[in-house]
Amino acid sequence: MIAFSHYDITLLLQAMVRTVVLSLGGGILGIAGAIILTALRLSEIRVMIPLRVLAVVYVQTIRRIPFIVTLYIVFFCTGMMGVDVSATVVAIGSIGLIAAAYLCEILHGGVKTVPVEQVEAALVLNLPLWARWRHVIGPQAMSAVVPPAVGYLVLFIKDTALASQIGVVELSQAGVILTNRGLPSTQVFCVVLLLYFAISYPLTCLSRLLEKRIAVH
């Protein structure tokens, strides 16, 4: 069993924090973008048709592009435009762009699971828009949205490892750095595995708790 030095432990902890920042920042951007895209796709206002088409094209296109390609596109485009941002910010933005597309598809599918009859009944009762979403559409859609959405976000925590391709030192890259310094690769990456588990397991527990609460309601 190897003994990690103070430098090794500091590097791993900093990389773990950076992985959490990438996942959390990208996830928040993705959720915000997904809500906007879903609202555009569900809009029935005639003047919004061009935006609705753009939202559909965006979702269908981004979901078919590998994350690493999106990462490189954002990285090189920011450089060409002279935008001075760190690699971490570029990675968060890239994660947000692709997460928005996937989460939009999940949200859109969840809303479509709500029976049309119930939506029509809410309209007959003259419920305002916010009340329809708060009491009729939202609660039923969430039961179909939460499990796949959280599952996707857990998977995306692992995909943040690709951010190392543009110079971000996250967990997997920290493991590579330590092995290049001569530490045993098996033991180093076992520690990296445990740290990834420590990040993703609480999110899985939160998903189960939300599912139970939704089921009760």
UniProtKB/TrEMBL annotation:
It comes from the Bacteria. Keywords: Cell membrane, Membrane, Transmembrane, Transmembrane helix, Transport. Residues 12-207 form the ABC transmembrane type-1 domain. CDD domains: TM_PBP2 (cd06261). The keyword Electron transport does not apply. It is found in: Cell inner membrane; Cell membrane. The chain crosses the membrane at residues 20-40, 61-81, 87-104, 188-210. It is a multi-pass membrane protein. Gene3D superfamilies: MetI-like. Belongs to the binding-protein-dependent transport system permease family. HisMQ subfamily. This is Amino acid ABC transporter permease. It comes from Gluconobacter cadivus. The lineage of its organism: Bacteria, Pseudomonadati, Pseudomonadota, Alphaproteobacteria, Acetobacterales.
